[in-house]
Amino acid sequence: MRPLIRIGLATLALLLFALPGMEGVVIGQTDPVLPTYQGYISVAPGGRYFVDEAGQGFLVIGQNDGTPWPGLVTLLNGASPDATEAYIKDLRAHGITVSRIMIEYAQEPYTYLEDPVGTFNPSVVEFWDQFIALAEKHGLYLLLTPYDTFWQAKNWNRYPYNSALGGPCASMREWLTDEACITAHENRWRFILDRWGGSPNIFAWDLMNEIDIWWDATPQQIEAYVDRMAAFVRDYETERWGRAHMITVSSAASVPDGRLGRVIFNHPALDFATTHLYLGSEIKSPQDPIGAGPVMAGGVTLALDAIQDNRPYFDSESGPIDRWIVDVAFDKEYHHHMSWAHLAAGGAGSGMRWPYTNPHWILPELRDNLLGLARYASTIDWAQFKSENISRQIKPDTRAVIPVGCSDGHTAVIWLLLDTRRDDADGLAGVTLTLDDVLAAGEYVIEFWETYEGNILATTHTTVSNGRLSFTIPELSLSLNDLALVIRPAS
Question: Angle at CA 29, nearest 5°, toward 23 and 35?
């Protein structure tokens, strides 16, 4: 695999190339400003993406985090609240908008929210009081789920909800169906909503992590639980605070189908869809950093195809679950490709990595990936971008280039990945792309973006006529292995 070599942009400013079919390529760079947001987040009027209270487009650029992980534990244990605040500031400086966190992390008893059931752990409650205040201060939004079902299932013999320990549930099988269990869930929600439900920086509630596994529940039982709990949370929160945050529920199935798929992708009480895209060995057990990109794009495309009302979708958990990556350079490239593929395919952000690292958090090198993506994303009006996947309509003149893209007929977001596993992967420069039936007729500007730092390398003007656009990628760098494009109407 060839290393990425970045060109010296300042030395190339205003240099022009005469290219067939193009009016000229202007080489230069820009300095995008990362946005800040106001108030509650809701679904954009056209679906697919989100908006803040000012109507500004909002993407879920982010990660999973955990209360005992390195970034947050210094606040949880009181060792250094300032270190946690610095960590939050670093996330925001890298363009991260949302952290997904389980309110209770159930690996060890000291992070239980209740123990016994109905008695709330003062140190965990204090953590959330302080952490939510810091999130508000620095503009970080939170996707919160009330239970850590993975460790809860692994540790059921010592988990406080177990009836053998005085809890309401005789077995895990009753978790979504037994009235005493559900009443306990509602009591936990009352506590959460009373104490933290008024925060504008709660992006949304994930009703239950991976609702489709651990309890052997049928799709009918899952649907009945979502019916009841979504109504409970929304009604209680509205009564308590006069408004409610968005609601979703996550599935462990990457692309659930049948009745479960209808619940996850189209339940009328859910505002957007989330699944955990552990799809195929390319993501779960990567042997190279290339394959995860197109697999992620394929998973996003299948999810969007399953959604009937244009609501947003994003992957809220994924990563190398079966083969943790120890080579940081490998991991950076793997995560980079997954993040860009997720966005370009039409997902409502970057996708949300679960670390599978040591130390167990999103490594600084992976946060760097998100900064480049965030800089690029800051130049697009997501509030008005009603996208459809166009990957099949982007046709490179070589099979060594993997195209991913989405468009609303006026703007196109495209990401190109050079498949360096192939012998004919000679580079991106000189590759000709043809887009069929993507953009309306008119004059357009094509921007070519470097993706790791998020800089425009070049722009050119072109024309779309008869539903077709064809152009050639200019000579930007000898060793760029991926490239992002924005095609927008010329002003």
Answer: 120
For residue 46, the model assigns a pLDDT of: 87
Q: Helix, strand, or coil here: 483?
A: strand
Query: According to DSSP H, which parts of 345-393 are helical?
Result: 364-377
DSSP state, 465? B
Write down the domain spans for the chain. 9-32+388-489, 42-377
Phi, psi (rounded to 5 degrees) for 468: -125, 140
Are 361 and 285 in contact, with CB atoms under 8 Å apart?
no
| Angle of the 258-266 helix axis to the 292-306 helix axis, nearest 10 | 90
Q: In whole angstroms, what is the distance from residue 210 CA to residue 206 CA? A: 9
Q: How far apart (Å, rounded) are the C-alpha atoms in residues 371 and 94?
A: 4
Which tens digits make up the pLDDT trace of 93-126?
999 999 999 999 999 999 999 999 999 999 999 9
- This prediction's pTM: 0.94
116: cis peptide before it, omega within 30°? yes
Identify each DSSP E strand in 146-188 by its residue range: none
Would you tell me how many other CB atoms lie within 10 Å of the CB of residue 381? Answer: 12
The letter for the amino acid at 126 is: E
For the stretch 405-450, pLDDT in tens is 999 999 999 999 999 999 999 999 999 999 999 999 999 999 999 9
Structure token pair of residue 489: 């109407």
DSSP H helical ranges for 197-279: 219-241, 258-266
Q: Give CATH for domain 9-32+388-489.
A: 2.60.40
Structural contact between residues 448 and 483, judged by C-beta atoms closer than 8 angstroms:
yes
201-228: pLDDT as tens digits? 999 999 999 999 999 999 999 999 999 9
Identify the CATH number of the domain defined by range 42-377: 3.20.20.80
In sequence order, the β-bridge partners of residue 395 are 434
Angle between helices 122-138 and 179-196 (to 10 degrees): 50
Which residues fall within 8 angstroms of residue 144, CB to CB, at 6 or more apart? 100, 101, 102, 103, 192, 202, 204, 205, 206
